[in-house]
Amino acid sequence: MMKSTDFIVARDDLRQCKVIETEVPDAAALPDGALLVGVTSFAFTANNITYAVLGDALKYWQLFPAPQGFGNVPVWGFGEVIASRHPDIAVGERLFGYFPMATHLVIEAADVTKRGLRDAAPHRQEGVAPVYNAYTRVSGDPAFTGRQGDYQALLRPLFMLSFLVDDYLAENEFFGARGVLLSSASSKTAFGLAHLLHLRKGIKVIGLTSASNVEFVKSLGCYDEVVTYDRVTSLPPDLPVAYVDMAGNSELRATLHGHFGDRMKYSGRVGLTHRASSMDEPALPGAKPAWFFAPDQIRKRAKEWGPGGIDTRFGAAWAGFVPMLDQWIAVTEGRGREAVKQVYLDTLNGRVAPEQGHILSLRE
Ligand SMILES: NC(=O)c1ccc[n+]([C@@H]2O[C@H](COP(=O)([O-])OP(=O)(O)OC[C@H]3O[C@@H](n4cnc5c(N)ncnc54)[C@H](OP(=O)(O)O)[C@@H]3O)[C@@H](O)[C@H]2O)c1
Asked: In this predicted structure, what is the pLDDT of residue 235?
């Protein structure tokens, strides 16, 4: 039996984490259609912590089973096929997609096309969005190799959200707003959105962030104004605004709604970086806060734009974004269990500088 090294966390206390070894089947013991994939590298950002926080509610824990009481946090990254029982997938192929924090994953390959495949494992089907089961075949693709590959793992899934929110707001003429407020403005998801909004002109892009991240957010050049959380009431209250919330901070939301009142034209929830959300928030003045649900916008645009319509437009947006990243992100590679644990805990505790892009591997 081969062994996989898995990094797991206690579901009810994310500060508790450990490394375990699990058994993976030998090549000869794989069922028909299955692939044994070695996880070569993955990105780790606050988004992964949100997957853990919402692990029960949104069924993320179900994707990569772990011992009772523990969960394996899903990550975006790369794998290499070590053994294949699928006639169309060769050993050595590279895949991009959703992986466990581990060294190995068995995928039950289905719907194999030239571009990708799907994991049809029964435990991954119920209640999980299809995007989490899709793997892209990226062997030899320069856009997924080296530093470009690191950017894909770090930012592509986040930038999809940025792209969809930009599209949604523009489609709705910003609900009458003339400015967009983004909390956790230093986050990758937020600055991806700020970059797209900035290109639209005519809409003021306002970043809200912590004092320690102000300089970074200003240096990006895609925010027209940057304000620290303790100064948000200094913003002119007569500006009609849309709020896109990456921080999920209930107190901040109440302050903003109270300050802008009826000029709060849209209030969309996207993230939970601050992990300071109260379960029952009181009714607030202005637009009613609601979660932005990406799959809804994807479904709508897939219908309206037809086959390939989203991919083409997203591809164009991505192509305009990637050239900025050499200046905006410093990729740091970490290998082995200690490095992974450190980055996990630092990210959990909000100790990662915003320009850091962590690419990890559990392979020693
Ligand atoms: N709904 C969706 O479909 C969807 C899709 C993509 C992303 N998101 C969400 O968007 C959020 C941003 O994700 P990301 O990966 O882009 O983040 P990231 O780049 O890792 O963001 C880091 C920033 O988040 C804030 N932060 C992180 N940890 C913190 C902590 N423990 N305490 C206080 N602040 C903390 C800080 O920003 P400030 O100092 O500026 O606050 C920090 O600079 C996540 O919650 C993610 O799940 C949601």
From this structure: 98
Structure tokens at 143: 């856009």
Cβ < 6 A, ligand 1 pocket: 45-47, 50, 158, 161, 184-189, 209-210, 213, 246-247, 270-274, 294, 349-350, 354
pLDDT over 90 percentage in the chain: 95
Integer Cα distance of 163 and 316 in angstroms: 11
Q: How many CB atoms lie within 10 A of CB 139?
A: 13
Q: Which of 183, 193, 160, 169 is nearest to 248 (CA)?
A: 183
Residue of the CA atom closest to atom 40 of ligand 1: 184
Question: In this structure, what token pair is assigned to residue 148?
Answer: 């470009």
| Atom 30 (ligand 1) nearest CA | 350
Q: For residue 364, what pLDDT is reported?
A: 85
pLDDT digits (tens, 9 = 90+) for 176-227: 999 999 999 999 999 999 999 999 989 999 999 999 999 999 999 999 999 9
Residue type, 283: A
Token pair for residue 65?
A: 């089973």
